[in-house]
Amino acid sequence: MKKHKGNKKAQLIVVVVFAIIAVVSFYFNKDKVEPSVSAPNGNIEISYLDVGQGDSAYIRVNDFDILIDAGPRSDSDKLMKQLEEKNIDDFEIVIATHPHEDHIGGMTKVFEKYEVENFYMPKVSHNTKTFENMIKAVSNEGIKAKVIKEGTSIELGEGARIDVYSPMYESYDNLNDYSPIMKLTYGNNKFIFTGDAEVESEKEVLEKYADKLKGDVIKFGHHGSSTSSSSAFVEAISPKYGIISCGVDNSYGHPHRETLSLIKEEGIKAYRTDLQGQITLTSDGNNISFKTEK
């Protein structure tokens, strides 16, 4: 009889221990689970700006004005003209994906024209005048740069959020791989931004977040270069639409033949700034429509 009671006691202890383990596991892993977003109210507008051989995207959602990259210095006047047409008072969020000039060349003009509340960039510096000018502009704004990296999450009001999957590590050989791979969720629609992230960074993200990458629209990495947007990465996203930001007759040959072949194979409807100018999409959280400048 005593033996039977001892077994009962042991069973109870086991149950309690497993319950404690489950609670602790949930507590320490809860930040790794992406919470669902609420139903959106209204529309989101995303404009992939025409900044020549560079990258820049403007997002208007709820009460947020957001800029991802600012193109090269040579096309900064063109960038500012497109932004001024949108009647922006200030920017709640500005993101510099990485320190290359064709992504941050117009940042100083953005900071001169607009008040910026929050500025994000990866934890990396670059020994160029363009980078130094950007950092000085941030300092003059009276704000500090926030580090964007794996695990960063930015709430954008009702029905909208940005989740960041990279960079995962402190150091990369290629500056492009510091680019954050991000998913912007608006209702049931999802939009992937990649900066110039290369295949190495894509592979890291695929190994850990393949089940979270599915999206409706992808901004192809590195202006449509063959060193980005691997078939495995694009297949994980399975997008209906794709955006390529590049300059007319650029010296790099962007977009590369390999990327165009992949787009055709996957049946993706692609838009290009070199052919169509500024590309603007609108979504109500379920349906996406496009309009192009040209």
**Widest sheet: strand order?**
6-5-4-3-2-1-14-15
Residues in β-strands, percent: 15-25%
Which consecutive residue ranges, at least 5 long each, have pLDDT under 50? 1-32
Helix run count = 9
Write the H/E string, N to C: HEEEHEHHEHEEEEEHEHEHEHEE
Blueprint of the fold:
Elements: H1 2-29, E1 44-48, E2 57-61, E3 64-68, H2 76-84, E4 90-95, H3 101-104, H4 107-113, E5 115-121, H5 129-140, E6 146-147, E7 153-155, E8 160-164, E9 182-186, E10 189-193, H6 199-209, E11 217-219, H7 231-237, E12 241-244, H8 257-266, E13 269-272, H9 273-276, E14 279-283, E15 288-292
Parallel strand pairs: 3-4, 4-5, 5-6, 10-11, 11-12, 12-13
Antiparallel strand pairs: 1-2, 1-14, 2-3, 7-8, 8-9, 9-10, 14-15
Helix pairs in contact: 4-5
Verbal overview:
The strands form 2 sheets. An 8-stranded mixed sheet has the order 6-5-4-3-2-1-14-15, with helices on one face. The chain has a 7-stranded mixed sheet with strand order 7-8-9-10-11-12-13. Strand 1 and strand 2 form a beta hairpin. The longest helix has 28 residues, at 2-29. With 294 residues, the protein is of the alpha/beta class. It is 31% helix and 23% strand. The protein has helices spanning 2-29, 76-84, 101-104, 107-113, 129-140, 199-209, 231-237, 257-266, 273-276; strands at residues 44-48, 57-61, 64-68, 90-95, 115-121, 146-147, 153-155, 160-164, 182-186, 189-193, 217-219, 241-244, 269-272, 279-283, 288-292. The chain contains 9 helices and 15 strands. Helix 4 packs parallel to helix 5 (129-140). It is globular.
